[in-house]
Write a structure and sequence with these properties.
The protein has 240 residues and is of the alpha/beta class. It has 6 helices and 11 strands. The strands form 3 sheets. Strands 4-5-6-7 form a 4-stranded mixed β-sheet. Strands 8, 9, 10 and 11 form a 4-stranded mixed β-sheet that branches. The protein has a 3-stranded mixed β-sheet with strand order 1-2-3. The mean pLDDT is 90.
């Protein structure tokens, strides 16, 4: 395929995807200047976390190449200063029970000794930068999910380091996604199980109404490394 045909192939893939569809007009496939024609960059702003996650993956599949840079941002639900955004992420991380052993440091504060897990937060132009050190991927994945869930977030750059995995990546991501749902006030009492295999997540269980079913799917996309979400949740009326 020539370059025009490649762009059209990607656009068709976006338009055919149920999570992108009409949002395809807000996405653009750009050739990397000065690079080979096989190297591309996906740019744009979309209001859906699912569309933001899937846009570059679909482009790579359509072009049959991994050489596609992801530069898609999430259109924020609200607008606030970078200082307020960073402060909100810090507050949320401190309030997360699963991260109670992790120290959240203030901007300019010296990181603790290596044996103390820690996370630092910086926001710039709506992009949240996470740094620090935690024992394993599940902590880093949860912190990223919390950051994505913040209303004014446009993107998350997760540079938190961790020890070599004691568990596989899929298990760590499933744990992070489950925690995001368990801590959400509208889903805390819903029996939802998340299974992840090769980056593809399946939601299993029962929720009380269609809105909670949609909410659970959206929250699952906030967990990192998710490539697809299969919503198998059943609607079973009010749960007790």
């Amino acid at each position: 395929m020539n370059r025009t045909e490649q762009v059209e192939a990607v656009r068709r893939a976006w338009q055919a995807d149920p999570d992108i569809g009409e949002l395809a007009d807000r996405l653009h496939l750009m050739p990397q200047e000065g690079e080979q024609s096989s190297q591309w960059r996906v740019v744009g702003d979309v209001p859906s976390i699912a569309a933001r996650r899937k846009a570059t993956t679909l482009a790579r599949d359509a072009l049959a190449t991994a050489e596609v840079e992801d530069d898609v941002a999430l259109e924020p639900a609200i607008r606030e200063s970078d200082e307020a955004l960073a402060a909100e992420v810090e507050r949320t991380l401190r309030a997360e029970p699963a991260l109670e052993q992790v120290r959240i440091i203030e901007p300019g504060e010296r990181p603790p000794a290596l044996e103390q897990p820690w996370i630092g937060v910086i926001a710039c132009d709506g992009i949240i930068h996470l740094g620090g050190w935690v024992p394993d991927l599940s902590f880093a994945a949860l912190a990223e999910g919390v950051a994505w869930e913040t209303g004014a977030c446009r993107d998350v750059r997760n540079l938190i380091s961790y020890q070599p995995l004691k568990e596989d990546q899929d298990q760590a991501v499933a744990e992070a996604a489950t925690t995001l749902m368990r801590e959400h006030p509208r889903l805390a009492d819903q029996p939802i199980r998340v299974e992840v295999r090769l980056g593809e997540a399946a939601l299993i269980g029962t929720v009380s109404d269609p809105e909670k079913r949609r909410l659970a799917e959206s929250l699952c996309w906030f967990a990192p490394h998710i490539k697809a979400v299969y919503n198998r949740l059943e609607i079973g009326g009010e749960l007790t």
